[in-house]
Amino acid sequence: MSGGSEDPTPSEPIWNPPTRVRAKVAERPRQRVDLKALFGLASGGWAWSTGVQAAVAMATAFALAAALFGPREATLAALGSMTVLYEKDTPYKYRSVALGLVGLGFVTCVAIGSLTGVSLWLAAVSIGAVAGVATWLCQALRVDRPGPLFFVLVCAISTIAASGVQEVPQHALIAALGAGVGWLVSMAEGLLRSRHPEHRAVADAFRKLAELLRAIGTPRLDHVQHEASVAVARAWRIVLLSQTRGYRDSPAAARLRALLRWVSDIHLAATDVSLSRTDRLPSVAADFAESLAAAVAKPDQTPDEAGLDELRKGLRPRSLEGRLYSRLARAAQAARRTEHEVEGHGLELHDAPYPPLLQSLRSSLAAGSLIRPTALRMGITVALAGVAGLALGIDRFYWISITATSVLQAGNVVLTVNRSLQRALGTLAGVVIGAAVLSTQLPLAATVVIAASFMGLTQLVVPRNFFYASIFMTPMALILAHTAAPNPVEQLAEARIVDTVLGSLAGMAGAVLLWRRASAARLPQTIVDVLDTTRTTLLSVLDPEDEPGPQRTYRLRRDLRSALVSLRGVYDSAIGDVPRATTTRPLWPVVVAAQRSGYLALSALALEKPPPATQITLQRLDLAFDELISALRERRTPRLGALPRLVGYPRINMELRALSSSMRTAVAQDERAAEREQQRRAQREHRRAQEELDADL
């Protein structure tokens, strides 16, 4: 298996016919602080499963710990049960270990909070340290949201219950009890659907492919292309994690690997089609891809490939659309078979399930990593927010720290401002609900049920809008805080509002003052990384003397896809940076051209026998990439000259020319902006000199 590592069965040589059509560049993504961003619902469904699991885990842990240790300490178990919110999408064997480590982290945070709770100033600093370290570890080890939030929350609440060093073992035990309950609830689904996470990941990739096919010929193409690539990359990771000893050699695992390769190959075929036409595809193709999603877990629901016959009529087998429909039909054939050979062409995954732990941690601390400034921003802001709260005489300073942690998870400045406003407004509404609940003097059993219900509602709506989640989260937090340290309800509600407002302001201040330009400064180097990886891939494909083997092909594919996904993520973060967003916006056409070049290189890598190029052509192509990369690094207009003629890959030349043109435009806009800024600076200096002269007179 060489370039066709995505194809479980051999196929005839395919190449891309010449074309002069370039798909229209999508409108750049925009991040704004407006009513839609604050109160509108994001696309996607409601998180019913996560909400139910969170409610069940909290109710069970809260009630059990209250019966064994008392209601005050039971709040630690209730929060410890939130291990159920982590690793929701990973295979169960991997999840069992990962959740154990999350639970160990909760126990450690409880111990830190209990030890430092004897001194409020020390507690404020320790909560900030926990926030920074948890942010670093969660991002370095790819732990998805809620990320560091509950580590900080557990640590903060444990400072309330602190009554001396002698209580630390008991508090750690209670937190471990809650973490164990969360572990059991999260793993319970595996008893009924042991392979559901990996089936769902591959099925989601097919659904995103269906959206990509529907987006061809529309202005949303570049955005949907990125979403499809993210879904395919995620499916690769989940399936890799599932390849455990014993299951790896089963026919069921071989079938899933075959479907994974087909979904990746269909994505690349769809990329070729999307970048070569400006009109839309027939809806039958997208409907067929969506039907394949249901067939991942249920082979009997596989669609009949005869439904594609009308689309394939009159198409040459080597045409781009013919290739796409052929891939869809072959994927259906693979999905229909319940028994697969455990070995064969295209069925081996040439990668370890996850990189070495130390390698991930070291790379997260590298000079160009965004994880390091993000973790430092989080730790410093949360620590200073707590210390400032104490300096202002606020007893419940920890709510300021918790709120700052929550809003800083948004990422850039614009999203942090949105999240701060959502948190503050949601808290105002939630405090009213929480105060009404607490004023009724509910028995412990009702308190447990209501707190768990609010947690379930929070997790149900948080993927759609953080404002509505804050409305439900606030009563839950008030109930737990009141149970851990009973205080007058009016005083608790008033303090909660003040602390939330101060925490939101602290989070915004941290986003604005600390490393606010990290993403924007990183963006040019990220584009360079994509171009460099694209060059390596193309030269490997075109060099007739360098035929990459299966393992190298896989590494090239993995590295390039990862670089492409990272590029869009960095750009999305950079456009919310202030004030550098003004210099980032003109780079959108550059980002699009770099991404399209990368996706075309991926498509070429998937060909069974790609058309080779001469050594002179390879040298000229290498020089062209060198010039583009140098121009990006030096922030100047590229002097590209004539590109080598790539007969079999005309759209690559087209995107490289578009890249050069968009870089020239971006540099010109940057120069004009710099010139205007220089003029404004000169005018300010002139006015200041005139004012000083007038004062002397």
TrEMBL record:
Residues 665-697 are annotated as: Disordered. The keyword Repeat does not apply. The chain crosses the membrane at residues 46-71, 92-113, 119-137, 149-166, 172-192, 374-392, 429-454, 466-485, 497-515. The lineage of its organism: Bacteria, Bacillati, Actinomycetota, Actinomycetes, Streptosporangiales. Coiled coil: none annotated. It is a multi-pass membrane protein. The keyword Heme does not apply. This is FUSC family protein. It comes from Streptomonospora halophila.
